[in-house]
Write a structure and sequence with these properties.
CATH superfamily: Divalent-metal-dependent TIM barrel enzymes
Helix content: 40-55%
CATH architecture: Alpha-Beta Barrel
Structural class: alpha/beta
Strand order of the largest sheet: 1-2-3-4-5-6-7-8
Number of helices: 10
CATH topology: TIM Barrel
Shape: globular
Strand content: 5-15%
Radius of gyration: 18 Å
Distance between the termini: 10 Å
Largest sheet: 8 strands, parallel, barrel
């Protein structure tokens, strides 16, 4: 059965814990994906300690740094700072004992030249294979961001299929808002590699992070895919705030996805 997660609110942690306990949810930490937080040692350690001393759910994930992180860049200096941010994120994840960390593709979908796409595949494959080998107890999930189609992400996942702690995070809302391909094509190409999902709602044009059921996404169609492909995945209900989280949970329960 899929494990559903919510984003904990650090400043109202007791409320997040109560909601998680009530519906048997895990956490995905969103505190640690900015350079400002990763470089603020005092605040970073304070938050890690708070979570580690609280009775947080057994199943947690974390979102790694993704702003301007380009591990496949032609510029070696950009690759170096990107590497630093990834390793900082992985070290935080290790201290939190999370199951996996989410990073983004961050490629420019409109650049389709062979050299650009080959560099994306080869450099990402080399880099993430090394990261996964150095953190064997932590999954790495690569998420589609502004990707207009799933082809490059599918190529990367296929190239890394032998790496057991590597997988795809399908952001279903990103695919519906930014994708030019039908959602069925995303599922067809990526489903063998999807281990984690992000869900929220939108108007099919912008990444609005609405409560599930408050936008235009076809959730009955999602339910079909969920039942066929995703019941063994972890799934983040990626909305902030107790009210939007609760509304999303109730909607997912009403259509038979979440018990």
């Amino acid at each position: 059965m899929a494990k559903f997660l919510i984003i904990p609110d650090y400043n109202n942690l007791n409320e997040s814990l109560a909601l998680a306990n009530k519906f048997n949810l895990g956490f995905e930490y969103n505190d640690f994906f900015t350079p400002a937080m990763l470089d603020n040692e005092l605040e970073l350690n304070k938050r890690i300690n708070t979570y580690n001393t609280a009775k947080v759910p057994d199943y947690c994930t974390s979102h790694g740094d993704f702003f301007d992180v380009l591990v496949f860049s032609d510029d070696p200096l950009i690759r170096e700072i990107s590497k630093k941010r990834v390793y900082q994120s992985m070290d935080v994840a290790k201290k939190l004992n999370v199951k996996g960390v989410v990073f983004h593709t961050n490629h420019t979908s409109f650049i389709t030249t062979k050299i650009y796409c080959d560099n994306f595949i080869n450099r990402n494959c080399d880099f993430w294979t090394k990261v996964c080998s150095e953190y064997p107890d932590t999954n790495v999930y690569i998420e589609n961001m502004f990707d207009t189609n799933p082809s490059l992400l599918a190529r990367l996942a296929k190239s890394m299929k032998s790496v057991k702690n590597f997988g795809i995070c399908l952001d279903y809302a990103h695919a519906t808002a930014f994708g030019t391909d039908a959602i069925s094509n995303w599922i067809e190409l990526l489903s063998p590699y999807i281990k984690h999902l992000h869900i929220n709602d939108n108007d099919l044009k912008d990444d609005l992070h609405l409560a599930v059921g408050d936008g235009q996404i076809n959730w009955q169609e999602f339910k079909t895919y969920y039942e066929k492909y995703f019941t063994d995945c972890s799934i983040l209900i990626e909305v902030n705030g107790k009210e939007k989280q609760k509304k999303s949970i109730e909607y997912l329960a009403s259509i038979g996805i979440l018990n």
